[in-house]
Design a protein that fits this description.
Helix content is 82%, strand content 0%. It is mainly alpha-helical. The chain has 2 domains: 64-214, no CATH class; 218-385. It is globular. The relative contact order is 0.08.
């Protein structure tokens, strides 16, 4: 059979479908319904939902074991803050274990000494404070009854009876048992945190190398740089917060001492501790100082305490925080507020305590992994050889072997 030959020009091939040109190789193997723009958007939405589901499950699982997760996070934050002291001691030819033990004992001695001093101070003034409290409560009662907006004795007695009924009720008993259980969990968590902190300070580098060994070789450099950056952020956050809280405590303590408010030193310590919980802690500690001044000194000194607290708060937000922590956190105030709301909703007081540092760490990791942190990217280029042993890098695809 004779072959049919065509001498005319070859017919042009049909153009590729929009799914082939716009979706690339990913869309070429998909049905037409998934290959267009809407189909690809649906696939991306499904992937995003899967990722959000995984993140939600992980967060839910972590919140189920707070006795384990919270000590680990707190120990990690404290290790980042105490690490420079350990490095300084080891740089002066101290053995690693001795440097860690010395730093650890020094921190425990400071906290233990402060708590012991406060307890003895309160016990030594307990009788005088009790008598002054009775006088102050009577003064406050007279102010409420004879003030511009008087409250009758019947209303005050009704409130007092309601409080007494609640204390004697079964609900208060269950709440007390819950409080005892929480106190036991806090004690166990504190011991566990101390043990974890010791091993983080002693073997932190070994733990990091072990964990990063599960990552692909090409990602280990970024992981080490991100870990170093997170340590800087956490350490700077803790030290900066401590300096800000110490300044506020000194201002409030001096003001309370000048005005002869009882328990000025314990109240200043509460202000210092409350400084580590953004917004919530300072408000609670300040409220306690105002109540003490109102009961023991009267309404005018309490108003002066409010003015002192407002001035210290303005100094903190407009001078101290931008100066001490602005370059470390680099997070907008709205983000901090949202992080506090989310942390408080998920984990209560502990969530409020950890929300800001964890948000700062997450943002640092995102910037490093996406290349937005130019300083970290430059340091990654100079530390690759120090982090990875020779010959550890994987050959690129298509690289010819000599």
């Amino acid at each position: 059979m004779a072959q049919i030959q065509s001498n005319g020009p070859a017919e042009p091939l049909p153009p590729e479908s929009p799914a082939d040109t716009r979706g690339g190789s990913f869309a070429r193997g998909l049905p037409a319904i998934w290959g267009d723009a809407l189909g690809r958007s649906a696939i991306r939405a499904a992937q995003a939902l899967l990722v959000l589901t995984l993140v939600s499950v992980v967060i839910w699982a972590l919140t189920r074991v707070p006795v384990v997760v919270t000590p680990i996070l707190l120990a990690l934050i404290l290790a980042s803050a105490i690490g420079p002291m350990v490095h300084w001691l080891t740089g002066h030819r101290w053995p690693r274990a001795a440097a860690v033990l010395t730093s650890f004992v020094a921190i425990l001695a400071v906290f233990g000494g402060v708590i012991t001093g406060i307890v003895f101070l309160i016990r030594s003034q307990a009788k005088d404070l009790s008598a002054q409290a009775d006088v102050g409560i009577d003064r406050l009662h007279g102010l409420l009854v004879q003030g511009p907006y008087p409250i009758t004795d019947e209303q005050i007695n009704s409130i007092r009876d309601s409080i007494q009924k609640f204390i004697l009720s079964a609900a208060f008993g269950s709440e007390a048992l819950t409080g005892l259980r929480v106190a036991a969990e806090v004690a166990v968590g504190a011991v566990l945190m101390a043990v974890i902190l010791f091993f983080f300070l002693k073997d932190g580098e070994k733990i990091r190398i072990f964990l990063f060994g599960f990552l692909p070789v090409a990602q280990r450099t970024k992981a080490h740089v991100a870990a170093d950056r997170c340590a800087v952020v956490l350490g700077g956050y803790v030290r900066g917060t401590a300096l800000v809280a110490l300044t506020n405590a000194l201002i409030v303590g001096v003001g309370l001492t000048i005005m002869h408010v009882p328990l000025a030193l314990p109240l200043a310590v509460f202000v210092f501790i409350g400084g580590f919980i953004p917004i919530i802690g300072a408000t609670a500690a300040g409220t306690l100082a105002v109540v003490v001044a109102l009961i023991f000194n009267g309404p005018v000194p309490a108003l002066v305490v409010v003015i002192i607290l407002v001035g210290a708060n303005q100094l903190e937000h407009h001078v101290l925080q931008p100066l001490l922590m602005g370059k470390v956190l680099r997070i907008h105030g709205l983000v901090i507020l949202l992080a506090l709301a989310a942390g408080t909703t998920l984990a209560g007081l502990v969530g409020a305590l950890l929300a800001v540092p964890l948000t700062a760490v997450g943002w640092s990791i995102i910037k490093i992994w996406t290349g937005r942190d130019q300083l970290a990217a430059a340091s990654a280029a100079t530390t690759t050889a120090a982090i990875e042993p020779p010959g550890a890098t994987e050959p690129e695809a298509g690289q010819a072997k000599e």
